Amino acid sequence: MKRVQDWLLRFRWQKLLLVWGVFLLIAAVLFAERSGVQYTHTRFRLSYLPQEQAISKAQALQEQPATCLLLCDTRQSGVDDARELFTQLLQDMKVAADVIDLAEVSVNDLPAPENYQTAVVLMPNVEPLGEDLLRLMNWVEDGGGLLFGMSPSNDRYFNVVSAKLGVMSTSGEYKQAESIVPAEGFMLGGGQRYELSDPFDSSLAVALREDTEVYAATGDEKVPLIWGRRQGRGRIVVDNIGYL
User: Fold this and answer.
1) pLDDT by residue (tens digit) across 168-186?
2) Which site in 8, 163, 166, 180 is 20 to 30 Å from 28, CA atoms measured?
């Protein structure tokens, strides 16, 4: 016993022994307090909806009032593919939409844009819209949101509304979209260049007004690919990429 006492007196870290002793005491108390405690778990069952009662996303949207008007003209090149793509995109975004094809519906029978919150125009040549194009512009002024989902063609109808779309001038030429550089903050990976496979002359060369915000451009010639601007109380966005 005397040897143990002498060793303790010579031990260099005597205070450390006190700390260890405190921890051992706490451990002993916790062990005594928790011993004999039985852990149980709650049993529960998940009730799944029968398969025959489940409805698809498209069916669920059909029961909702349409808030988006999609106008297209499948007589024009590439529009049929664009309609299929945007219809799926709207479904994925859970946006109920009325799809109107001018190849099947007379322009005189078009729904009033005032019944919708947003509208998508899928046709390079907007001439088939006639005076309804100006009606759409007025609707944007009152707070509507309008998206031109395809590269516009340089025709007289486009020239009538080009200023409202943020276009100051255009050469009428189409530039090759060899790559896309999204603006920083616009999407993940913004500020970086991404090459596009099989590039072709797909994007209308335009000079934009100062109040226009460019969201993406080509990497070489900085041709605007996606831009938008405020128009009255509404907003217009133009997709000038030409790729689907």
Assistant:
1) 999 889 999 999 999 999 9
2) 8
